[in-house]
């Protein structure tokens, strides 16, 4: 199952040409991932404080397809692709209406406070797998 998150393009998101600055797509998909996890009932602050677990982006493949512009309404779709022991792979797409502006394949890892990989706790794994 996929998750949808809407955001509007603000002036601060654009460059001198009036199009979304390329790095801001990464911000958009980060926000969408945060809302996806929140929607699953996962409290990331509690994960950190109680289990010392945080998520970090390990790898990202990004395709910039067509520019989004000031005041566009964008929908970011997040879809789990693979859930491993300590790794989660997601596909994310930013669309303006039916037009795909940006696509990414994002690999997240679960890390400890010291930066070492951690296995996903069974309850978290179950929540993520419920997709």
TrEMBL record:
Signal peptide: none annotated. Residues 18-99 form the Thioesterase domain. Keywords: Hydrolase. Pfam families: 4HBT. One of its GO terms (molecular function) is fatty acyl-CoA hydrolase activity. CDD domains: 4HBT (cd00586). It comes from the Bacteria. Belongs to the 4-hydroxybenzoyl-CoA thioesterase family. This is 4-hydroxybenzoyl-CoA thioesterase.
């Amino acid at each position: 199952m996929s998750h949808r998150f809407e955001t509007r393009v603000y002036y601060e998101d654009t460059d001198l040409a009036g199009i979304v600055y390329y790095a801001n797509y990464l911000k958009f998909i980060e926000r969408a991932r945060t809302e996806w996890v929140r929607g699953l009932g996962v409290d990331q602050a509690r994960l950190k404080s109680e289990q010392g677990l945080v998520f970090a982006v390990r790898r990202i493949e990004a395709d910039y397809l067509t520019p989004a512009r000031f005041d566009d309404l964008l929908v970011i779709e997040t879809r789990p692709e693979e859930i491993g022991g300590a790794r989660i792979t997601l596909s994310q797409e930013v669309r303006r209406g039916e037009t795909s502006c940006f696509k990414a394949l994002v690999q997240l890892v679960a890390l400890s406070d010291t930066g070492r990989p951690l296995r996903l706790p069974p309850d978290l794994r179950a929540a993520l797998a419920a997709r």
